[in-house]
Amino acid sequence: AADPRGASSSSGVVVQVREKKGPLRAAIPYMPFPVAVICLFLNTFVPGLGTFVSAFTVLCGARTDLPDRHVCCVFWLNIAAALIQVLTAIVMVGWVMSIFWGMDMVILAISQGYKEQGIPQQL
């Protein structure tokens, strides 16, 4: 149906979508890109190992999406995610989760790099 004023019905409408993250997903640290790629590589071949390594980057000052939680709490959330990946790797669920977790690490590293450089991004 055409608008009698000559404008489309969706003109001037801005929709913003914001992802709601659970505590485990929000605990993934923003790491430098090379470290994130190494963690993805480790998670691909040894489920949970890259997630375990990423937990220690939190202790080294890596930022997460849980700023109100203590560093030790976020560290243990990452250790819990690594254990879940290891324990469920037997039925392939943990291996797939581990690969997706590594991909999230790389995506977060890329988005953090764009923010630091002040470049607008669209992911």
Automatic annotation (TrEMBL):
Transmembrane segments: 33-62, 74-101
Listed Pfam families: Spec3
Name listed for the protein in its UniProt record: Stum, mechanosensory transduction mediator homolog
Organism: Saimiri boliviensis boliviensis (Bolivian squirrel monkey)
Main location: membrane
GO CC field: membrane
Membrane topology reported for the UniProt record: Multi-pass membrane protein
Source organism, top-level taxon: Eukaryota
Keywords: Membrane, Transmembrane, Transmembrane helix
Ranges in a coiled coil: none
Record's subcellular location: Membrane
